Each structure stands twice: as C-alpha cells, then as structure tokens.
C-alpha cells in the first residue's frame, strides 16, 4: 500500500528555474557547416523516457532546429506536442550531442540530483502541469521559460538519491515485464496472420488435391479454386470507387445533419461513430456514387496504408472521403465476410499492397492498384465455411491479445503511478 512518508509534508518545493538552468549552450549561426553533430529529435525519445537513437550528421545537413547542446546529467523535456511525454534523462553524452529546439534542455544545479530531476520531470504531476499550460490545438506547445517556472518537490539530497535508485530498479523490472508482453503480442499477431493465411489460401481440408496457383509468392492452392483480380469480383460500375476529391466537398456543415463524411480515422480504428464532418442532405444525394452501403469495404489510401474495414449497417448514412477507396463485392463471386478477412488479415494481400506502396511515386493506393490485387477465390460454400472458421479462430485469439494488451496498460499505469508516488513522498522507507 502507498502511504505518505512522515516527513514528505516537510519537503520544500521550488520552481525549477531556481534549482536548474536551461538551454545553457546553443550552437552559433557561425558553426562550421561540416561540423559533426549527433542529433536528437522528439521522436527519438521513447514513451518510457529513454533515448532510442540519435542521428549522426554534418551540421549543414541538420534541420534548422538543431541547436541545443546536451551534456551528461541534462534532462530533455519536450516543449512541443507535450502530450507525447518526450522526456529523457541523459546519462551519457558525447560533445557532439545536439537536441532539437523542440526540447527544453534542463541542467540541474547543485542540490538537485540529476537522476531524481529526470524522474520528477516524468511524473504525472509534472507532465500534467506542462500539458495544461500548453497552447495550441494541433501542435500544443509551452515556452521553455514557462516550463521552468513550474515548482517541483526538493527533498534532501540523500533522499533524492534513494528515490532515484529505487525508481531505476523498479521501473527496469516493470519495463522488462512490459517488453516480454509486447514480444508475446508480436508472436500472437504473427501466428494469427499465418493461420488465417493458411486457411484462406489452402482451405480447411488438408486432403484436398492441390494445383500450382501460377503465382510465385502464393504457391499451391486447392485444385478447384481460382485466382482472380479483385476488379473482376466487384459490382460493375461502382464496385471499386475512390472517394470524392476535396473540390466536390468545399462546404461542410458545422452542425450535425445526419449525413457524415467518413475517412481514415474510421477505417484505421474501425469505429464509424468517430468524426464530426457533416454533409448537407442535398449534397449527399448529389454525390450518390460515393455513398457507403452496409457491407461495403473501405480501405485507406494514405497514412496507415491498407487498413480495411466493413461499413456497418448501424452507421449513419455518409460518403467516403478522398483518402478512402470503397470496394463493393459481387456476393455471388466473393462474399464480403471473407473479403474483409482477406484484405485485413491475409499475408499475401498485405504483401501485394506493400509491394505496390514501394513501387509508387507517392506512398498511396488508388483504385487501379487495388483492382489489380490477386485474390484466391474458393467456391461459395467454402467461402462461407472458411469465413466462419476464421471468425471463430480470430475471436479466441483476439480475446487473448486483448487480455495481454490490457495487462500492458495496467503495468504502464502502475509504472506512472509509482514514479509520481516516489517523487512526491508517498512511499514510506524512501524518506
């Protein structure tokens, strides 16, 4: 049980700027273009507060924001996109280590133990204050001068050392547990895809006669199955349709109209209740060819490339936007229940999409690329049996994945709570 240490209430609190300096060393504009630097960007800091990598480069190759020198003992605290919690304590640093100006580089003074300062900066209490003072919607940020104006607990130096050592040990144990669970998730996902791919390319009857598919990366398939291009399995006319381009939807309603514009956020998440882009009813009917019907498959063109979902019957009527491709299968040729499994889970489909992405000038899909995907197509009765078997298997596997994911979330939450409790004096024995 967490209990407040008897003397924690007596710990002084000081503004960070009175026990640390910040942004002390900055490269000058006159720095030699060919000077070697080791650059750290916000994305280089992990969620657990470690520096995952730095990028060696010449000064003239670096982003214009590469300016702040970093020394061992410094604390890097992100001042932009603060909700990402990009905060790292630097334990070793070369003379060439340079941080993006998106960081506030905090250098603890005498009386503030650098590892303790790093843990304080990662505590929910401190991060919450930073985030609450950040300004901006899409790119929230805080000034470094405002950040160091926040106060922090400052127990005796020996207590700071004990707390830092305690957290070093305990968080390492938790991080090891989380890493093992994440590795388990990866194995489960790989096994899931392998078994689904086996079912949709080889069938459920291991004794079925086989034939060469004629496609190198696919190998053999049941002798009575066919391999067809996706474009030959959809409804004619509008079976394969990219969403309307922006010029067709220049005016969206600020208020709910009952007709939505759906996009990547829905396809990637699988949640069609998300989003607040509304279309006037008249415009909705004008763009009838882009309307989504229950059972339609939608696939993303950009971002999380290739994410595919089935449009649910209970979703509000709406259109797919220009970042989305609608696929409406001819059920007599390929049942949508099996099609969604193929496009979302089958490795051979993912491989084709990835190959198309690598070969494209722009990293995006279009209806031609999707239409040219090769699809292994069983007879209708087997399609139903395979989709039913896959759904039952995926349900069991997904429940296990969800349980492991939940345990990772619990461990992550416990880690955060432990840090905050330790640096604010809520753990007896550390005072």
Provide structural commentary.
- The chain starts with 12 loop residues before the first strand and ends in an 8-residue tail after the last helix.
- A hairpin with a 7-residue loop joins strand 16 (297-300) and strand 17.
- Helix 1 (114-122) crosses helix 10 and helix 4 (157-202) packs antiparallel against helix 10 (380-423).
- The longest helix has 46 residues, at 157-202.
- The protein has 431 residues and is of the alpha+beta class.
- It folds into two domains: 8-154, Adenine-n6-DNA-methyltransferase TaqI, Chain A, domain 2, CATH 3.90.220; 186-403, Alpha-Beta Complex (Adenine-n6-DNA-methyltransferase TaqI, Chain A, domain 2), CATH 3.90.220.
- A four-stranded antiparallel sheet has the order 2-9-6-7, covered by helices on one side. Strands 4-3-8-5 form a four-stranded mixed sheet, with no helix packed on it.
- Helices cover 35% and strands 17% of the residues.
- The chain contains ten helices and 20 strands.
CATH topology of the largest domain, what is it called?
A: Adenine-n6-DNA-methyltransferase TaqI, Chain A, domain 2
Q: Roughly how many Å is the radius of gyration?
A: 27 Å
Overall pLDDT confidence: 89
The general outline is elongated
Largest sheet: 4 strands, antiparallel
The helix count comes to 10
Name given to the CATH architecture of the largest domain: Alpha-Beta Complex
Structural class: alpha+beta
Number of domains: 2
| Helical residue percent band | 25-40%
* Strands side by side in the biggest sheet: 2-9-6-7
* CATH C-level class of the largest domain: Alpha Beta
Parts with pLDDT < 50 across at least 5 consecutive residues: 1-6
Give the SSE string: EEEEEEEEEHHHEHEEEEEHHEEEEHHHEH
Strand content: 15-25%
At the fourth CATH level, what is the homologous superfamily of the largest domain? DNA methylase specificity domains
Assembly type:
single chain
C-alpha termini separation: 16 Å
Question: How many extended strands?
Answer: 20
